[in-house]
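User: Can you fold this complex?
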Amino acid sequence: MTSTTSKADESGSEGVTRLVAQNEADNPSSKKIVFGADQALALDAGEELGPWQIAYETYGTLNAERTNAVLVCHALTGDQYVASQNPITGKPGWWSHMVGPGRPVDTDKYFVICANVLGGCLGTTGPASANPATGKPWGLDLPVVTIRDMVRSQARLIDHLGIDTLFAVIGGSMGGMQVLQWAASYPERVFSALPIAAAARHSSQNIAFHEVGRQAVMADPNWAGGAYHEKGLRPSKGLAVARMAAHITYLSDAALHRKFGRNLQDREAISFGFDADFQIESYLRHQGMTFVDRFDPNSYLYVTRAMDYFDLAADYGGSLARAFLHSPTRFFVMSFTSDWLFPTVESKVVVKALNAAAANVSFVEVESDRGHDAFLLDEPEMFRTIRGFLTGAANARGIPAPGGGL
Amino acid sequence: MTSTTSKADESGSEGVTRLVAQNEADNPSSKKIVFGADQALALDAGEELGPWQIAYETYGTLNAERTNAVLVCHALTGDQYVASQNPITGKPGWWSHMVGPGRPVDTDKYFVICANVLGGCLGTTGPASANPATGKPWGLDLPVVTIRDMVRSQARLIDHLGIDTLFAVIGGSMGGMQVLQWAASYPERVFSALPIAAAARHSSQNIAFHEVGRQAVMADPNWAGGAYHEKGLRPSKGLAVARMAAHITYLSDAALHRKFGRNLQDREAISFGFDADFQIESYLRHQGMTFVDRFDPNSYLYVTRAMDYFDLAADYGGSLARAFLHSPTRFFVMSFTSDWLFPTVESKVVVKALNAAAANVSFVEVESDRGHDAFLLDEPEMFRTIRGFLTGAANARGIPAPGGGL
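Assistant: Here's the predicted assembly.
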């Protein structure tokens, strides 16, 4: 495991945090592999990307048979620090309830790999990374990437690690899209697949919300046509608005009502003004402000675009079932009752296609009022059912439990 | 009825449209009443507003008994041109399916009044109006107004027109909030009240969406702290982003899927770029762009704030039923199944309070997949039930049908 020393105090100046973030784009605190120009990545956009690099983190130990590797795929603004401290924010891993010793994805038993996505900004090649041709950040010169490109890059990492078949590929939201793409692109390399709070295609409404976010970033004059790095600018206000709008979609009406209601923030009465009178306003502003220090605005454009472009059935003549035909993979599909960004109906579309393809599939809908974010939170039913599914799959795969024995 | 000649070609240059819009703020194409400093309006913010003016439109004829007046209250970005051409956009009245000769709100039978709201930008005093003290636009010097202030201003208009009791007050969304406020503030002056797709308080999630919109406007450097008028600027990009985000909330996932799905805009394949590849993106951008020419950015802040502040029960010791105690008004509450901005549960809260107050109430939930916008669209069940309710109420009130007889 990589050092978990925080490079920036969480409450430190935003300048420092941002400097750290900028440095992480090329020189991540995590492990990384650099692929040369002779090992270029062929992208869906029709271009070759090389040299390029992938940043990743690992937890646990790969067994001698190389059968216990679990790939965790992260969501839109996630990173490789799934179970260890984030070097920019100093916060614990984003899924440390799920991944770690004794956790459902038990690092005493499995070898866990998590890589920053292509197009991201935490060490895998993205628009904030240095373009080898110029030495300056790629910006919008980087070809637009897709979920399939992300998965291709991860497959190169898995090759490099000498792993033939992953025991499991697991992820929520955009991570779940990658899981589905993995199962479709490399069925023989995926023993089990766990797409959580995800969908096989991005809906019209979700594209709409992403478009609002992108327009907010691009409307900021400091975005400068994507060339803010070289001009010493930062479209922080635009990115903050984008994050605020997106953040609402991660929650639920019920959760917001329970958490904030119409409570006022540090005041007894409304101010008859445009300050943050309500707690929900103050909370959203905070979400926006903290986000801009850790995430590259152009990366936000690229990664949202990758999600928008995702439509797995379209790659298989419009038939999602065809994407999974003769699949040897065991699937575990999960949704949450109050998730309106990736509602249960989207997961059921996947389950139906898997059934039509005669694949092995389990489906769990978790009762929760926490919206899409539920997959990142402490949801006992999620942990219990994922642990159960993985234990069954591990038995079938012959992976011994910690301390020996099956 | 006022002349319906369009002052700007709908496809005309945005400069011209904007000039017309700016002029309408002080010199509306509709009727208007100017109240002097001696007729100031007492605002919830604790300040007196005067001189001030209210712009309104009327349709039909007030009967000799003055019993057939219907007040229509408009929504966030609506105006007084409920059933006649909008002078800025050249488009037909925003509710011309509902209001007009032979329509459910029949102008052959009723005398219909619709006023621009306080804080608006179509002729009633708002931040774009000239501040009498300076001759320049009020901007943020205008006190923040509330839904109750809007209703107070309308009551002054009704006084001026010599109408004691309104036969009906009707409106959707923010218009419905005004309807509820009318019934609470002036029960003896409201024979029947029809709040449609509304709520007795703005929810946490709705405040959140409004806050995103306001932040988008205020993040635009051209907003200039609200002083864009005098600086010859216009925060168009910020306001367009605000409108785009809001517009998503007016529709429904199902409607977007049916209308746009993942269809591409004027192209055969995705472009691997950030142009509007998808129809939904193109549609949203269009919504944003056309909005900025007709609406004042500061007005957007004021009117969204008024909605956020609305919490009728809070004015009655936390008991919504108390707001309607001993009410002589006949209520007709309507919601739409796919409306997630003002979901049915919010209407049911109102109905429950009315029942607890032993008020006379009918409730209809209309089956529609068109989301919140349904109340503005061609929804036969809405028209049929509202026509039926109004006819019954008119009979009870002794308003003759067109052509004589009850």
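Chain B has a mean pLDDT of 95. The longest strand of chain B covers residues 52-59.
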